[in-house]
Amino acid sequence: MSGYHEPVEELAAEDRDISRALNSLKEEIEAIDWYHQRAVTTKDSTIRDIVVHNRDEEIEHAAMMLEWLRRKMPAFDHALRTFLFTEAPITEVEEAAVAGEQAPKRSSSGGSLGIGSLKG
Question: 33-47 pLDDT, tens per residue?
Answer without folding.
Answer: 999 999 999 999 999
